[in-house]
Amino acid sequence: MQNNILNRQPGTWKWGLLCLVFLASFFFLTYGFANQYASSLSNVPSIVFAWEHHIPLWAWTIVPYWSIDLFYGLSLLLCWNKFELKQQTLRLFFAQLISISCFLIYPLKFSFERAELDGFFGLWFDVLMGFDKPFNQAPSLHIVLLVILWDFYRRHINPSYCWLVHIWSFLIGLSVLTTWQHHFIDIPLGLLAGALCLWLFPLTVKAPYQKDLLQQFTPKHFKLGCFYLVGALLCLVPAFLFTGAWLWMLYPAISLFFVALAYFTVRPHIFQKQQNGQMTVAAWMLLAPYFLFAWLNSRLWTYRHPQDSLVLQFNGVELYLGRIPSAEHTKQYAALFDCCAELAVSQQVQHYEKFNTLDLIPVQSQQLLVVAAAFDGFIQPVIDSREQQKVLIFCALGYSRSCSILIAWLLQQNHVASVEEAIALIQRSRPWIVLSEINIAELKRFQALLTQEIPQ
């Protein structure tokens, strides 16, 4: 997937020009229609906090406010290849679609009266007011587009100058308040809507609408999906009952809803873990409350047993089983095999590979066939190095998922003769592993499948 971004295709800008013509037409038609619709209503509410009356009107910030139009058009002309252009076009299109839908479903009005401004900056305001009206508020389309454009330009600019993108993006975001175009609530909603557009059309990971062909839906998926969905609904209750600061509870509600979606649809890649072990920016923005909960949970459950366990030594390799490591902890290993979809890992090891699995879901036999082979291919370069190397296989706790995968590999490589022998081997160094009856049944099913694959 990464290669799709980096490959340069000459002439992509010509297709970008066509996309720009389409998106510009779509923008003006839909934005104008939503404005006209809201202005025809007899009563359009506003959501504004008392402290917002202290926000100053800074006329000069109309410059960064308008600049987003230039960056919007250029982003479609600067794409490196057709894949990136397609994703950028879809992101911008859905940004418009999501925002306009919200403007029509729940129209809001900006409530401050702006005094008439003169001079250079006043002219820019006059041009803006000729097209815009005090409607089309939440989510701020300006902020939605800003998230998409910030993600684009931070990738395209020389890393040494990335700070320019961050500063100018901040000014654009600030300008929606200091030009008196939006109330505060429009901004966090715009950030989430922008993150949703990035998440729907990723560049470095599998898209959330694509299936995971290895894993089958089970009652456990449904049970855990319902658990997270109930959690999302409980977070919504105070947001709607009490409003005010309780509106922030919408954030964990949205986060938990996406986790529920991962279980209901059997898609561990909804967490968007990349090949370097980090989540995408979109996943961080949408799922940050859950990621914090999951990390704290991993530390609490392993508080009494934080250490990794040496399971096997062979061919100069020390094979460890453990919980998700910290960045500092990874430095003692030459290779990391990551079995955890829901937590990011910071690492700079020579060999790193991931296999996405959902928390508390037993790894199924068909998955074990694939991941055991993947782990063997992963560990071979470490063996071939002919140096004493340490390898860590891990999941969130190092109790179940990574344990099942390690057992599958031990069986595949004939280090053990049975599932029971493998469990006994691991329990000698890590007696606190947790393998349910379903885990063990899947492992035995895997062993049966493995026997069928061996030529007689």
Q: Kindly state the percentage of residues in helix.
A: 55-70%
Give the termini distance in whole angstroms. 39 Å
Shape: elongated
Strand order of the largest sheet: 1-2-5-3-4
Q: What's the pLDDT, averaged over the residues?
A: 92
Rounded radius of gyration (Å) = 26 Å
Poorly predicted regions are none
Strand content: 5-15%
Protein name: Putative phosphatase
Domain Tyrosine specific protein phosphatases: 376-441
Transmembrane segments: 58-80, 92-108, 135-153, 160-181, 187-205, 225-242, 248-266, 278-296
Pfam family, one: DSPc
For this entry, give a set of tags:
456 residues, Protein-Tyrosine Phosphatase, Chain A, 3 domains, 15 helices, 6% strand, elongated, Tyr_Pase_dom, Dual-sp_phosphatase_cat-dom, Prot-tyrosine_phosphatase-like, Putative phosphatase
Describe this structure in words.
- InterPro entries: Dual-sp_phosphatase_cat-dom, Prot-tyrosine_phosphatase-like, Tyr_Pase_dom.
- This is Putative phosphatase.
- Residues 376-441 form the Tyrosine specific protein phosphatases domain.
- 56% of the residues lie in helices and 6% in strands.
- The radius of gyration is 26 Å and the shape is elongated.
- The mean pLDDT is 92.
- It is mainly alpha-helical and 456 residues long.
- The two termini are 39 Å apart.
- The longest helix has 28 residues, at 12-39.
- The protein folds into 3 domains: 12-200, no CATH class; 219-298, no CATH class; 305-453, Protein tyrosine phosphatase superfamily (Protein-Tyrosine Phosphatase, Chain A, Alpha-Beta Complex), CATH 3.90.190.
- A hairpin with a 2-residue loop joins strand 1 (309-314) and strand 2.
- A 5-stranded mixed β-sheet has the order 1-2-5-3-4.
